[in-house]
Amino acid sequence: MPLFEPVLPDSGLVGKLERICGSGGVSVSEPDRIAYARDMWPRSLIRQRLGAVDSPPDVIAWPQTAKQVAEVVRLARKAGLPVVPFGAGSGVCGGTLPLRGGIVLDLKRMNRILDFCAEDRLLAVEAGAVGENLEREVNRRGFTIGHFPSSMYCSTVGGWIAARGAGQCSSRYGKIEDMVQSLTFIDAEGQEHTTPFRWPGLSAWSIDPLLVGSEGTLGIITSASLVIRELSAERWYRGFKFPNVASGVEGMRLIFRQGLRPAVARLYDEFDTVIAKTGPEEEDVAEPVLSGLGGKVAGPLKRLATLGLTRLLHSPRLLNRMVDMLPGGCLMVVVAEGVEEELSHTSEAVTTLCRSRGAVDLGEGPGRHWWKHRYGISYKQSALFAAGAFVDTMEVATTWDRIPSLYKAVRKAVSPLAFIMAHFSHGYREGCSIYFTFAAAAKDDAASAALYDRIWDAAQEAVLSEGAVVSHHHGVGMSKQRFLVRQLAEANVLAQAAKTAFDAGGLFNPGKLGQRGGSVPP
Amino acid sequence: MSARRRELSDNFWLSLASTFGHRKVLKDKAAAGAIAMQPGPLAAFFPEDPSEVSILLQTARAEKAKVVSCGACSRAHDSIQKRLPAEGYVAIGLSNLSGILEVQPDSLWMSAWAGTTLAALRRTAEEYGLQVPLTEGATEEGTLGGWLSVCGNTNDAILSTPAPAVLSIEAVLPTGNLVNSVPVPRAAVGPDLFSMFLGTWGGFGVITRATLKLQPLTERRALAGYRFSATGRALEVMRTVSGRIWAPQAARMIVESSGGKKKARLAMSFEGEQGLAEVACKYFRAEAKSAGGTAAGQDEARSWLYADPAGGQKSQSGCIRWSQVSGLLRKLSGAERVVLDGPGLAGCRLRVVPGDRDDLAALLDPEGSQRESLDTAREFLSGIRTQLDPDGLVNPHAWPLPAPGGGL
Amino acid sequence: MSLDSHKRSLGHCTYCPKLCRFCCPAAEVEHRETVTPWGKMTLAEMVREGRVDPGGDVGEIFYHCFSCLHCRTHCTHRIDVPGAMIEARARVLESGGGIPAVDAVLGKFKDTGNTTGDDLSKLLLDQIEARYLEPDAQAVLFFGCDALRYESGLPKMIFELLAELGVDYVAAHVGEDLCCGMPLYQAGDIEGFRAHAKKLQIALSRYRTIISPCPTCVYTFLGLYAQYDLAPKASVVHLSSFLGPLLEGKDPKKKLDGRYTYHDPCYLGRYLEKTKLPREMLSRVLSEPLLEPVWTGQDATCCGGGGLVPHVLPEVAQGAANQRMDQLKKTGAERIITACPGCIHQLTEAKDALPVDSLTSIILKSYCG
Predict the structure, then answer these.
(1) Which chain B residue's Cα is nearest to A201?
(2) How far is CA A204 from each of CA B164, B165, B212, B372, C368, rounded to the nearest angstrom?
(3) Contact assignment for B191 to A469 by CB distance below 8 Å
(4) Who's near A304: CB < 8 A, 6+ residues apart?
(5) Among A64, A73, A43, A65, which Cα is nearest to A55's?
(6) Mean per-residue pLDDT, A159-171
(7) Over the range A43-75, which residues count as b (16 or more CB within 10 Å of their CB) and which as e?
(8) Which residue of A has its CA nearest to B216?
(9) Are 3 or more Cβ–Cβ pairs between B and A shorter than 8 Å?
(10) Exposure pattern of B185-197 as b/e (b: 16+ CB <10 Å)?
(11) How far apart are alpha carbons A68 and A78 in whole angstroms?
(12) Does the structure show a pLDDT above 50 at B266?
């Protein structure tokens, strides 16, 4: 008995799509529709536990060229079917959920390097290239893209651009919008366009800032021209232990104010410091916390502490209190890349600055450990979900003057509902991002879903009231849509104007970014 | 025969009377005297609050009257004046919407009303030991709103890529909606809608306030210049050094013919915290020497960098990728001087002196692909603008968007 | 064993953000979420939970796995996706939701003892001299079906090399069963595999050492047979491990010129964790250092020969071979060396393939002249 029936309006549609994408380039099979029904939005994972496959596409197509993408768009327009572009589905916000069915357009068969110019430091690549594979090929040629999201192994160039991502080394290499020099995209009428090359002085004539971060709602990005950098000769690793978050944040601020460019400067709050020390293979994060608590755990608390993290997540207030009892100390991991003189200057300057704020130099160990396991944190979530709990992250940003109050406000809002920890990263001269991780558990999956929504409401309420932005680099998707609409306020008019100008009929990824998706006129 | 100037209706004045009162409203000759543009406006308003700007735009829209917003009109040169609506327009002068609102020196930002002069911004920043990252051509009497409308993107001091000069903008749309972005260093909240206000001459609305990025005052400027007999080697040094972590704040290579041979002069300046600037300049010196460069004196290098490279002559400019430069230099062999500056990762700006060639655009963009892309961008931006302002009433002189590289 | 025995793994994969997908050859050839390890495991979990039936389109998905184990290299939980896929395939067969290509393979195996219907016994006997059929030898060479089928001359080459090295106690295994049975296991016919393993275990029980040029066979004996308590009592080694100590201290007669690269077979490199020894052996016989591909060692990409995929999904297998060949060609090498007959065949069939040599032939050329 199939889980769901396809609802294609035109019975010949599959044949027409096959004539465009080839016979192996289209599917309406149940397994494919299940696989493309979700990305990595934790809310969807909770629903998965409930046995729900909420929004399967009607059909999946795999074009191999921009021309085929354009033809599919024209066909979809005629057929009145929405189109949702899809990279590798690693997004954590529900951005690729085909809410109204339609065609999911998987771009990964478009993964070619179109042009590589070492002299100009430019790479032209199709949108479907998977990050790690592309980076290895670019490395083989002596360069790096410099974009290292945690989803490096499981995300695509098009996804990076559509979600407006920022990699772990963004303090050195910039964010994705700094790397994009030009884009090629297919518009809602199935026409191909290339945006102007982003020379200084031409910014006003650039629509890249509109397309970057558009989450598949304005056009389908088919390829991009990215700046690349020569591979760094060497790397410097370090760890510093600050007495508390405030001094660590101050250390970070001074590093960026001074114009230093470490690839990574990442400060963990007390609990996240404990987690950061564990390797990705250690699923049970409770043990290191309990060790950290040492003799401070006493009485009834001690008994509860042995129940393991999942049970403890049912009592978030208690767990958060336990964290407050952790011996102080916040780890800052610093990694710098460059040639010897650059590294020598950076290392000296960073060390001096950190020490001036009370930090103890821990040597290179923590930095090397972090670098080795830098993608490891993503492996930890499986165990929690499989055990019936859930975990999610919320990355927000604000200026340095507001960082302490933002951190405090979000923790206060979420602590009664979930266990929460945070790190500070992606530093700028003016501020940084706070990356909150929260974990919770409820009596069953229906209750988990309700609790999940309450946590997000509380957290984002705090973000909005502190004047911070609802997302720094994960994007909006479904998870932050209602908050974005509130934050935009009257600027929703501007957002709607942009949507209408690019996609009046609401063909692309309808129901996202708070924009009205209408039916597509024939 | 010039177009007949229109009259503004009584309804128009009545709608605004309660909001503005006579003090902030000038008509006809008085308006023309207050706003330094020709032809002068039919009326000039000087709002003191963004909500007044909003009311004005809504009222003008109902009246189908064109509106032109002015900061200090310091860029009101001939080309704008030619585009001012012949039938008349209502001017919004932002000089009363002026003043510093907040300075956070530790967070390197300052928030101010759009009518604040750049001189006032600079003075305030200096009180805190900071500076405002203004762009080439910005004048002291210009305003924040005007500067952002004309350019608004600087070269990010850290990344050497174009980046907004502001953390946030508040503006009034042609619809009258008062909109603002959140003052944060960066966000991933869908399309960057507020990028449309920067450098588009007010075509998307009237900027009323902005949170401006600041920088620490330059602690140290380390500068060096070298002469090269081989242009190619000088070019390679420029290209290589521009790709470093601490790229030069200013770099210029001047190529001239001398005795039938091409010679190059290359100077670079590195700014920032003392050690940083020194390390970066040291690297440049090493690269230049190993490429056969002969060191010039500090004063000489400074003049190469900051004096007018065209020597008072007219010049033409465009942008070029590194891989195109050598080929283009050969094609420009007849030029008196070719200047390369503003280097980025992928290329630089190129200027030809004298600027009397009619083939430069074609040489820089032989397939016309960049021109086509610019048309694409204009088309989409126009589409957005039409949604907001179907009759094209607000800052009509800004449309169609002018060709890049110049003013209107 | 059943899908339930993989419950923890299936759960982990279901909630993972597909971190291993970049190195899965099925995912990289088809570019399809459904056949990433995440997609396959999520579907298997849905089968285990009874939310979907294992037949039809669903069951077919479980055959999009090369069993290469590359996913585990990049999984901190060390999840055995191939193992789970075998159990899922078993469920497919149990449910009667047969895949025609799988049924064809099983049918042929039942009739001929191998997947292609070749007369392996004849192939072997045509290639070796009678003196190498000594039934009382201490050690036996178990060639495996791929070696007999795809590396003609290999048996002769090996015995020539052994003779050069003074080894006279090794005989060739001949008998009814010349295939280790891995194809049965890969098809999901666990019971058929166990029965076959039982027979072969008995047939090989007289030997102290079993040597095979096929790492798949070696792993099958050491790993899979052991899983069902049928592990041979003999020590089982890959030919390279047997030759390694014998070549220690011996100088080759000549070093081979040219630019070579080495492809790590999945079963040798990942399953048996032998990546260093072949390289050490080659470093002694090649004039120039080996040119390493970007994807190498434990991170080597599959040639597309495993998991029964060439039989069930030949285009996907071909795609994997083409991708691997492309990676190897990017090293600038003129020739490829590898230590698995299945890999030799698969890579030779790749598009615009470079010539592929077996490790044995390289050693032979170098030590025997």
Answers:
(1) B405
(2) 10, 13, 18, 16, 72
(3) no
(4) A311, A312, A315, A318
(5) A43
(6) 97
(7) bbbbbbbeeebebbbbbbbbbbebebbbbbbbb
(8) A257
(9) yes
(10) bbbbbbbbbbbbb
(11) 15
(12) yes
What is the biggest distance separating any 2 CA atoms in chain C, rounded to whole angstroms? Answer: 64
Q: CB atoms < 10 A from the CB of A393, how many? A: 15
Distance, CA of A278 to CA of A288 (rounded, Å)? 8
Q: Are B318 and B371 in contact (CB under 8 A)?
A: no
Q: Which residues of A touch C8 (CB under 8 A)?
A: 386
Backbone angles phi, psi at B295, to 5 degrees: -70, 140
Residues in contact with B370: Cβ distance below 8 Å, sequence separation at least 6, in sequence order:
A196, A197, B364
Helix residue ranges per DSSP H, A27-89: 30-35, 42-49, 66-79
In terms of Cα–Cα distance, which of A127, A183, A134, A124 is closest to A157? A127
Range of the domain at B162: 101-217
ipTM: 0.94
Asked if the bond preceding B85 is cis, omega within 30° of 0, the reply is no
User: Over the stretch C313-334, which tens digit does the pLDDT of each residue have?
Assistant: 999 999 999 999 999 999 999 9
Chain C nearest-CA residue for A283: C77
- What integer is the mean pLDDT of A323-332? 80
Least confident of B25-39, B71-85, B108-122, B194-208: B71-85
User: In Å, how far from its chain's centre is CA A77?
Assistant: 30
Whole-number pLDDT of residue C104 = 95
- Residue B64 to residues A502, B45, B90, B177, B208, Cα–Cα distance (Å): 26, 17, 11, 17, 22
Which residue in chain A is spatially nearest to C11 when comparing CA positions? A386
Q: Are strands A103-106 and A83-86 parallel, antiparallel or unpaired?
A: parallel
Q: Which fold has domain C112-245?
A: Rossmann fold (3.40.50)
Give CA–CA dist A274/A287, Å, rounded. 10
Interface list for A 142-181 with C (CB within 8 A): 151, 153-154
| Cβ separation A382–C22 shorter than 8 A | no
Tens digit of each residue's pLDDT (9 = 90 or more) over A200-213: 766 667 899 999 99
Distance from CA of B245 to the nearest CA of A (A): 7
What's the CATH number for C246-368? 3.40.50
How many domains does chain B divide into? 3
**CATH classification at residue B130:** 3.30.465.10
Same domain, yes or no, for B181 and B253?
no
- Cα–Cα nearest to A148, from A125, A163, A132: A132
Domains belonging to chain A, first-starting first, are: 13-108 (3.30.43.10), 113-230 (3.30.465.10), 234-465 (3.40.462.40)
Whether residue A353 contacts residue A255, with contact meaning beta carbons closer than 8 Å, is answered with yes
- Provide the angle, in degrees to the nearest 10, between the axes of the packed helices A403-414 and A245-257: 140
For residue B1, the model assigns a pLDDT of: 44
Q: What is the pTM of this model?
A: 0.95
C-alpha distance from residue C296 to each of A134, B243, C80, C258, C343 (Å): 16, 31, 20, 20, 14
Residue B402 lies in a domain: no
Instruction: Spell out where A231-373 has E strands.
Output: 234-242, 264-268, 330-338, 360-363
* CA B123 distance to own-chain centroid: 20
Q: Are residues B132 and B44 in the same domain?
A: no
Using 50, 70 and 90 to split pLDDT, how confident is the model at C221? very high
Cβ C57–A35 below 8 Å, yes or no?
A: no
Residue finishing a domain among B189, B217, B245:
B217
Task: Strand B166-172: give its sheet, edge to edge.
Answer: B100-104, B109-113, B206-213, B166-172, B178-180
The alpha helices in B3-99, defined as continuous H runs, are 10-20, 28-34, 50-63, 78-83
Percent of chain B with pLDDT over 70: 93
Question: In this complex, do C34 and A31 lie within 8 Å of one another by their Cβ atoms?
Answer: yes
Structure tokens at A374: 């830098």
